[in-house]
Amino acid sequence: MNKLNELFNPNFYNKPIKIDNFNKEDLVNFFKLMTKIRLIEFHLADERKKGTIGGPVHLGIGQEAIAMGLSANLESSDYVFGAHRSHAHLLALGSSVKGLFAEILGKETGLSKGMGGSMHLSDRSVGFVGSVPIVAGTVPLAVGAGFAAKIAQKGNLSVSYLGDGATEEGVVQESLNLASLYKIPVIFMIENNLLSSHMHLSERQTSFDCSRFAKTNSIPYRMIDGNDIIEVYKASSCAVKNARNGGGPFLIEAITYRWLGHVDWREDVDVGLSRSIKELKMWKKRDPIERLENSLIKSGLWDKKSTDNLIKSIKDEIQILWDEALNDPYPEKSQTLKRVFCKK
Amino acid sequence: MKKIFRYDEAILEGFKYLLSNYSDLFIIGQGLWSPWYVGNSMKDLDKLYGKERIIDTPVSEASCTGLAVGAGLVGMKSIIVHPRMDFMLYAVDPIVNQASKWSHMFGGENSSNVTIRAIINRGGEQGAQHSQSLHSWFAHIPGLRVVMPSTVCDARDLLIASALSEDPVLYIDDRWLYSQEDYLPEVKNIELVNQKPKIIENGSDLTIVASSYSTLLAKNAIYSLKKEGINCELIDLRVINPLDLDLVINSVNKTKSLLVIDGGWSSCGLSAEIIANVVENIDVTVLRYPPSRITLPFAPAPTSSFLEKEYYPNLKDIIDRVRCMHVK
Ligand SMILES: Cc1ncc(C[n+]2csc(CCOP(=O)(O)OP(=O)(O)O)c2C)c(N)n1
């Protein structure tokens, strides 16, 4: 079996990850933040199920290592663009959990002042320019931000998060060509979770490998196990160095899997045409967080009890921030008309 | 006994009729094999007619629409489905530059049979990119027929007429209409070219013009107003391109006042066109009150239900406006 096939087979890549030559403090921090992101998303799933959240939430549980490994290489002066499933993209940059909660609840104190909700997030203070639900809509925008970064010569770069589904949009091919032609410092981070809403990759493309689009556009790329934080970190570091040194675009295809359905709390094993409980269970063994935890424990850097304490303290914090957000005010109704054009 | 159908079931009936009677018809688009996106309006079509004729696609609106336009050019009856009109914006070129121009550019000998079904799906805290009613944009384009059924029967029959039309047709349905119920008579083959606005309610106090979901809103408002002794005439446009306003002009001459209700924005939109067209074609001195319109506020849709409630026109808005116009 070649590497391409192995990467898509959940029976492979489920062992603890190799952390030998890596900064131990960073690893523990990765573990903590990924755990936090996951618990936040589970919390959102619960609140959505209960009806406290009125709109759709697209959760990325199971995909946390990708945003974590890439964000750890970025600066707040970089430009990051997401899509419909971007909570982790934002949180891994260190954005405000309370701001996210308030936004999802439509409160004035939210990251987008209560105008956007879960699918329209922005936090310029950490470099997150914006996420929108039009599939592939932000891909050319990220190329544009990278273009601006290149012109300004400040050494910053841009990031475009996209899914395997998004690569089916023509605008992605056009964007890859432009990025390559103008040597734009943009990192295309493809989160290949094999699914696009209810359809499996095998029903939408004739190859599982989306990085082939990098190849045809002469863009350097890596195809990696997206559930291995070290792999993601290393590939991202290489992409970031390349961009900062004037090397232009880089594409990373991180293979992963989302544990929940396309939207909200359900697992959607019934409607995903090629998604079974069995497959989901196998993918859960390739859990990016547990694999890191096991490695940390094996190296004596961490223990189960610390995980229990960590989870408890994160849950407490989540509850406090959630309650705060619930009590925050809604925007004035007049804001719908006042925010059509920017005040600045 | 006659059976009652919901609006979405009527669309499904339309598809079944087409698929059963026309072997050269296929449907392509996102979500056609899934219980999401299109509600019950295409339920199990793939199981009944096969996945070769009912095709669920990659996330590729532009090329799938182009494909349908192309197949329509060489004689197939193609239907492309866009679960949300917002997503269809990637496909504006095949619709506006290609399909809509083809007949004219090539001497009127040949055009694409394509039917483009675009669904409006608002509310539910989905925000600015999942809520747009862009019918006015498309009704601006010569060469593109645009239909907006508001009733259960039209949902089926205008779909059939669209698919059988030799011209490109944009068929727009609104998910907020899906729970409406009515009897469905036998299918009559109607020609889209002959489809015009219809009077839904007779009245002599005021003319209300609407289409799609706005017609339903207006209908409900009219029932309340009747109790107050205000009798409005309601005209459902049904086809907004080409727009035939004879019926509207006659009605305004009778009621001497006009209110347009539109689910889109006012600026350069359908409501503006109707008012302008009526004013151009009547003696304006007959009007007892300036023509008026109820549309969306001129802002993208906000996301939270808190703000959504304020954003979408409701029954009360219509009733208040009519009362005020009636008094004058
Ligand atoms: C232009 C457009 N087409 C279709 C949709 C509906 N839609 C929302 S998310 C999605 C799936 C995208 O899949 P992928 O890019 O792989 O991301 P994932 O959901 O797997 O994270 C689709 C089809 C949309 N939002 N925008």
From TrEMBL, chain A:
Start and end residues of each Dehydrogenase E1 component domain: 32-332
Entry keyword set: Oxidoreductase, Pyruvate, Thiamine pyrophosphate
Names of the cofactor(s): thiamine diphosphate
Name of the molecule in the record: Pyruvate dehydrogenase E1 component alpha subunit
GO MF annotation: an example: pyruvate dehydrogenase (acetyl-transferring) activity
Residue ranges that the Swiss-Prot or TrEMBL entry lists as coiled coil: none
Superkingdom of the source species: Bacteria
The keyword Oxidoreductase is annotated on this UniProt entry: yes
Biological process, per Gene Ontology: pyruvate decarboxylation to acetyl-CoA
PANTHER family from the UniProt entry: PYRUVATE DEHYDROGENASE E1 COMPONENT SUBUNIT ALPHA, PYRUVATE DEHYDROGENASE E1 COMPONENT, ALPHA SUBUNIT BACTERIAL AND ORGANELLAR
UniProtKB/TrEMBL annotation, chain B:
Top-level division of the source organism's lineage: Bacteria
The name this protein goes by in its record: Pyruvate dehydrogenase E1 component beta subunit
EC number: 1.2.4.1
Coiled-coil region list: none
One Pfam family it belongs to: Transketolase_C
Keyword presence, Glycosyltransferase: no
Cofactors: thiamine diphosphate
SMART domains hit by this protein: Transket_pyr
Keywords of this entry: Oxidoreductase, Pyruvate, Thiamine pyrophosphate
Gene3D superfamilies given in the database record: 3.40.50.920, 3.40.50.970
Domain Transketolase-like pyrimidine-binding: 5-180
GO molecular function annotation: pyruvate dehydrogenase (acetyl-transferring) activity
Class in the EC hierarchy, top level: oxidoreductase
